[in-house]
Amino acid sequence: MGTRVFSLILLPTLQCNADCEYCFEDKTNDRLSLERLQVLIDKVLDHLVARDIGGLTIHWQGGEVMTLPPSWFARAEDLIGRAAAARGLAVNHYLQTNMIGYSPRWNDVIRTMFGNRVSTSLDYPNLYRRRLGKDATDYNTVWTHKVRLARTAGIEVQVIAVPNAATLEMGAERFYSHFVETLDIRSFQVNTPFPGGESNPAKRQLPHDSEALARFFTELADVWLERGYHSGVRVGPFDELLNYFSSAPALLPCIWTDDCANHILCIDARGNVAQCDCWVASYPDYWFGNIFDCDTLGALLAKSQVLERFHQRPMALVARECIACDYLALCHGGCPVRAFSVHGTLFEKDPHCAFYQSLFGHMASAAARLARMAAEPRACRVVPVTGRVSPPSN
Ligand code: SF4
Ligand code: SF4
Ligand code: SF4
């Protein structure tokens, strides 16, 4: 069996206990039964065997996954483990949750199925995340309590944060301090927001101005390089960009893969198959089909004209817009859903293009400075990763 790994974003429930303003999901009461999960996973694994792909990573998302009971996941893990073993495949599981429904009842399944690690979401300042019928302050309070409870049980909590207009105004230093020094989060990723799904006042502010995003991200990278890089704090996407520009193995976010449709697929609780969660939740015209209506997943994908358009996008952008870009081999035109949610077509480059170029240039310079430092005799070493020169450390 090959060594390639495929990613499946699986939404076993479309219910959610939150009501975030920029959510792109059409929340419903649909849930995946274990009987249907068996059918789904058999088709996915058979497809991987046919493509000589040796591993599957399942990213469990919702809705909110913790609206299902932990016992459902324990049985799902068993079912998937047996199906994978029968085909000689390896499966890893990742959990994305808002943590609102977390209680110690989840500890066993988080340990055995998810490697004692969860990924969750919090913005700072939080303007848009809230529980149903509550305000953002309540969300912060409940989230902080649940995250502390989980960490007390030894669970590693990684955070995804999305900057809003107030974040950009507040600046990178306060943002970093809040996550790392106040909340003691040692691993977080900053994603760019996009106006996916039905429009509303919060989404109409998107996308943010590229210059403001570039300023915030490059300042945040500098704060991290100065205060967290050497002490094991991980901040994405800076850590992986640094790897990339240092010619080290890098696990870059999907927005910068050559063709995300080659590596990722999403299936929701009703069996709809699409490129990722935003497509499956918001754009039914862009579904590839339904896994419960096909003989094999391979046949479903082979006859999907929508999928064919995803495959055509990178080359179309290279030919038209990105050919002269220094970062083409890294960025490939950026994310299809970010382009679509702003321009209404797949065949435009990512609206964050200018911001990406600034960030790539900044991280390339940082990688070069770190490489020069590593090559210097130790007694002469300073820490100029931010462009400021610190006193010698020893
Ligand atoms: S927690 Fe996620 S699915 Fe639920 S409302 Fe917020 S963004 Fe949407
Ligand atoms: S459309 Fe964008 S977010 Fe979705 S899988 Fe592709 S690159 Fe990732
Ligand atoms: S940075 Fe812009 S021009 Fe360069 S590959 Fe990405 S989208 Fe295309």
TrEMBL record:
An MF annotation (GO) of this entry: oxidoreductase activity
> Which keywords fit this entry according to its UniProt record?
Iron, Iron-sulfur, Metal-binding, S-adenosyl-L-methionine
Look up the coiled coil feature and give its residue ranges: none
List cofactor names only: [4Fe-4S] cluster
Q: Does the keyword Oxidoreductase apply?
A: no
Known PANTHER family for this protein?
A: ANAEROBIC SULFATASE-MATURATING ENZYME HOMOLOG ASLB-RELATED
Q: Which family does it belong to?
A: Belongs to the radical SAM superfamily. Anaerobic sulfatase-maturating enzyme family.
Q: What is this protein called?
A: Radical SAM protein
**From which source organism is this entry?**
Thiorhodococcus mannitoliphagus
Species lineage: Bacteria, Pseudomonadati, Pseudomonadota, Gammaproteobacteria, Chromatiales
